[in-house]
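Researcher: Structure for this, please.
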Amino acid sequence: MFQLNLANTENRKITEQKGNITIFEYDHDMSVDPGTAVSAYFASKMNVRRRQALFQLDANNSVICQAGAMQWIAGSVAAATNVKGVGDFAKKLIGSAVTKESAIKPLYQGNGLLMLEPTYKYLLIEDVGAWNGMVIDDGLFLACSSSVSLRTVARSTFSSAIAGGEGLFNSCLAGQGLAVLESRYPREELVEVVLDNDELKIDGNFAVAWSQSLNFTVERSTKTLIGSAASGEGLVNVYRGSGKVLMAPL
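Model: Predicted structure, token format:
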């Protein structure tokens, strides 16, 4: 048995809870010395704060994490490699090379708590099942339920990869379960667009996540080259079909 003082305190607040995941945020950094106190004070005023994800693990809830993300474990929790044979290892190694993600992500299972390392980025809890395959930008993945699969997907067209600025390959989360994403942008600034047999055009690679069911292409902003030149937009990223897109403001 163990006991922890992880309830809300004057400095540590619970900002989001979903399923077996809890997100903590520290109002300001108290672990400072006189030389860094001023910068820490103004950082907290600009919402630059430490955040952590806590997972409650049991027989029905195990978690796959980015390598090196674990800070501490309480209870009877063990880590495994989450590699199913030589073929699976080869696929993970290839996917790691093209997406810059770690090839081996540990699987934590058992009964207890798993706390991840603190980060100054924003932590987003997403229901993967609601996305019908969630394609994410490189570096966004932090952790997910073991019921969610993380695989590498390629662009449907070479032009969309090169001209769209999104790269040839991305990580894709699929299945039913929750995932934690490590975002440069807070939830309040992100724009979520839900498409129902429609299209979305974005001038630049502002999309941080989108449904795999969407058809992603790169096209001229208008039907003619002269029109594109006159509008000053040139090429735009186009998402067509039914699904969701999560856009960053900057």
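Researcher: Any notable elements?
Model: Residues 192 and 246 are 5 Å apart (CA to CA). The first strand starts at residue 12 and ends at 18.
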